[in-house]
What does this fold into?
Amino acid sequence: MKKELRIKKNEEFQSIINLKQSIANKKFVIYYRDNDEHLRVGISVSKKLGNAVVRNKVKRQVRMMVQQVFDKTKKRDFIIIVRNKYLLDSFENNKKDLEYLYNKINKRMD
It folds into this structure.
């Protein structure tokens, strides 16, 4: 995922989260809002999930899922928060859950 497609700053995370537009399941919480530029994604993985190696692996996997699932022509910001249940399932099942939430968001926004 290119750097201009990422949300990194804490202020940006907080401004999106404070809008309280979210959708969740057992593995992910996704906050979202429209923007004027292009698709941007921020990924948050808690220290409760494991050490730095585990958290970085989870972030890499979620970035790959975003590349495969999300439509890059939509002008939206997303914050993806990964929950503990993520580690209990396979990559493919986690990807299906993320895709389900993404499709649900698109139905709400369109």
Summary: The CA atoms of residues 16 and 32 lie 7 Å apart. Helices lie at 10-18, 52-69, 91-109.
